[in-house]
Design goal:
By secondary structure, the chain is mainly α. Helix content is 73%, strand content 0%.
């Protein structure tokens, strides 16, 4: 009986399969990241338009921090498949705290260095600048940092599970 991984791969177009198999932890990491991006977006704007109206960096920080907890759980159980030890918790907290700061930097620069905020610019320009700097640029830079740092310092014990995943790969096509 085929494994869930084999069944999922059977539905993927042929040319994409080798890439997905070779970069499976990156693909899983990106799926988790996309989910957490949407969570951050919802929390950020929920706070920004209610209790943190004059504190957009606080709203982004809270949204990013909460999504980071969800990210930890999903990445630990699925993307990097840690072997059950919680020894990665301290490095995860350190990397995540740094990543939240990395995520906030573009918004801080946009608002307080380039003064892309009211009254210097229109409300619309401020909101576009906040979205691009905080949600897009900040997220992309923090994502690259997190992926590198998580593989290097946090989820380092993944060889066992990668060997199991490789055993579940579909046979190579001949001809």
């Amino acid at each position: 009986m085929p494994s869930p991984t084999q069944r999922a791969l059977a539905k993927v177009p042929g040319p994409l399969r080798p890439f997905l198999v070779q970069h499976r932890s990156l693909v899983k990491f990106l799926l988790v990241g996309g989910t957490c991006f949407l969570l951050t977006l919802a929390i950020n704007y929920g706070l920004k338009y209610t209790v943190c109206q004059n504190k957009p960096v606080v709203a982004l920080t809270v949204g990013t921090a909460l999504a980071t907890v969800v990210s930890y759980l999903l990445n630990r159980q699925w993307s990097f498949r840690s072997e059950g030890s919680h020894k990665e918790a301290i490095p995860f907290i350190v990397v995540s705290a740094l990543a939240v700061g990395v995520n906030d930097l573009p918004l801080l620069v946009s608002r307080y260095v380039f003064h892309l905020r009211e009254p210097s610019v229109s409300h619309f320009t401020q909101e576009v600048a906040d979205f691009v700097s905080g949600m897009i640029v900040g997220t992309l830079v923090a994502m690259a940092f997190r992926y590198w740092a998580m593989k290097k310092w946090v989820f380092t014990n993944t060889k066992y599970h990668e060997a199991q995943d490789n055993a579940a790969e579909p046979p190579a096509r001949v001809g």
